[in-house]
Specification:
It comes from Yinghuangia aomiensis. Pfam families: Methyltransf_3. This is Class I SAM-dependent methyltransferase. Helices cover about 40% and strands about 20% of the residues. α2 packs antiparallel against α5 and α3 runs parallel beside α4. It has about 220 residues and is α/β, with parallel strands linked by helices. The chain contains eight helices and seven strands, in the order αααβαβαβαβαβαββ. The protein has a single domain, classed as Rossmann fold (3-Layer(aba) Sandwich), CATH 3.40.50. Bound molecules: S-adenosylmethionine (SAM). S-adenosylmethionine binds next to α4 and β2.
Length: about 220
């Protein structure tokens, strides 16, 4: 196996990547600062800026009429998706925290995208299972409790339109996915990655973006 094409990301290279990627818009920049200030510990759950830009680019390419996010927190990834939706496109956000998503609601208002977003506060699996069962979702981003990933996948895939994208975050889990003795969240991600690998309904790739991002395209 030749890994020589894979660049190890040093602090210096990461700074370079950020410096040469489209930066967060003013609302996103303020949201990063606010999340760090208000929720110092959990703030690490927020996707990093380059991943947000990547989400916006993918959303603009897919032009979803209906998108779903599982795991909203203070709203950074939802902002990245919502700002790139086409005219009339909608985003359904799933989370269990009123406290964290109240910050997201403020950011959506400031960014002028609140009218495109429907936030449901409930266990995401309940929200997903209550959606119509026919294919109607064009883009999904999964970034919530890792034990739930396989269930979210199974709830989402039959509802995805042909050619739709399913994105899943943290699929390298700090590198711990290669540890067969892993327990807890990294073990759940290992189960998820095996599940995706065996699913003939999609073609999928794990990209080493941030903590690992699965990009799966639903076959037509
Ligand atoms: C990693 S954070 C999401 C980060 C967000 N995507 C961002 O970029 O800022 C995970 C979120 O999943 C939510 N969550 C955890 N368990 C959940 C569940 N069973 N159903 C819905 N949301 C859940 C948490 O409340 C938390 O806000």
């Amino acid at each position: 196996m030749d890994t020589s094409k894979n660049v190890r990301i040093t602090d210096e290279l990461y700074t370079y990547i950020l410096d040469h990627s489209t930066p967060p818009d003013p609302v996103q920049a303020e949201l990063i600062e606010r999340t760090h200030r208000s929720f110092a510990g959990p703030s690490g759950m927020q996707i990093p800026p380059e991943q947000g830009t990547f989400l916006s680019i993918l959303t603009a390419l897919v032009a979803p009429r209906f998108a779903v996010e599982v795991g909203t927190f203070t709203g950074y990834s939802s902002l990245a998706i919502a700002r790139a939706l086409p005219e009339g496109g909608k985003l359904l956000c799933c989370d269990v925290s009123e406290e964290w998503t109240s910050v997201a609601r403020e950011a959506w208002e400031k960014a002028g995208v609140a009218d495109r977003i429907d936030l449901r506060i409930a266990p995401a699996i309940e929200t997903l299972n209550a959606l119509p069962s026919h294919p109607h979702i064009d883009l999904a981003f999964v970034d919530a409790d890792k034990d739930g990933y396989v269930g979210y996948w199974e709830a989402l895939i039959p509802r995805m339109t042909p050619g739709a994208l399913v994105l899943a975050d943290n699929v390298l889990f700090g590198g711990h996915v290669v540890d067969p003795a892993a327990t807890g969240a990294p073990a759940a991600i290992r189960r998820f990655n095996e599940h995706v690998k065996k699913d003939p309904r999609v073609e999928a790739v794990i990209l080493p973006v941030a903590d690992g991002l699965t990009v799966a395209r639903v076959k037509g």
